[in-house]
Amino acid sequence: QAGNTKFNRAKLLNVGYLEAIKEANWDCFIFHDVDLVPENDFNIYMCDRQPKHLVVGRNNTGYRLRYQGYFGGVTALTRDQFSKVNGFSNNYWGWGGEDDDLRIRVEMQKMRVVRPSPDVARYTMIFHKRDHGNEENGERMKLLRQVSRTWKTDGLNSCSYKLLSVEHNPLYINITVDF
């Protein structure tokens, strides 16, 4: 994300999805925090019949689910599932709330979150200080209360951005955008 606006993880994930479907007919999308490293290679990165949450435990939470309903860190959704919920909200500027918003969208579409077993879905979180521009989002609780009214118009269908560059590398594609 270029420019001086606050970090918007959810909108960047929408951009990644929208740019990926321009390149190929992908059918499974893994949305992955950069600071989480899988500990068990039996935690298979693939989609399921329901949206899949791959982080049941991590080292900084004693390998327990962070909280009931947690749907963050690493998630896997099919193209149909992600499209059905209209992707992520584009309105979470700064840290927090976007994962809970996505879970609410999933539940509103009568889908349920599935998870691998806790002994498999384990991650190490790489410790880091919160980046400048990614301060806690003070509006997140208000936004979460509005999901049922906003999800149809806030998401993939309203994700506007300026594409600055697309750089193809051997293991990844680096996409730079400005909002």
Q: What does it look like?
A:
By secondary structure, the chain is an alpha+beta fold. It has a single domain, classed as Spore Coat Polysaccharide Biosynthesis Protein SpsA, Chain A, CATH 3.90.550.10. It contains five helices and eight strands. Strands 1-5-3 form a three-stranded antiparallel sheet. Strands 2-6-4 form a three-stranded mixed sheet, with no helix packed on it. Strands 7-8 form a two-stranded antiparallel sheet. 30% of the residues are buried. The mean pLDDT is 95.
What key attributes describe this structure?
transmembrane; about 25% helix; 5 helices; Spore Coat Polysaccharide Biosynthesis Protein SpsA, Chain A; manganese; transmembrane helix; glycosyltransferase; about 180 residues; 8 strands; three-stranded mixed sheet; alpha+beta; three-stranded antiparallel sheet; galactosyltransferase activity; single chain; globular
Lateral strand order in the biggest sheet: 1-5-3
> Considering the protein shown, what is the CATH homologous superfamily?
Spore Coat Polysaccharide Biosynthesis Protein SpsA, Chain A
> What overall geometry do the principal axes of the alpha carbons give?
globular
Rg on CA atoms, Å? 16 Å
The overall number of domains is: 1
At the fold tier of CATH, the topology name is Spore Coat Polysaccharide Biosynthesis Protein SpsA, Chain A
Strand share of the residues?
15-25%
* Structural class designation: alpha+beta
Number of strands: 8
CATH architecture: Alpha-Beta Complex
N- to C-terminal separation?
A: 8 Å
Low-confidence stretches: none
What is the residue-averaged pLDDT? Answer: 95
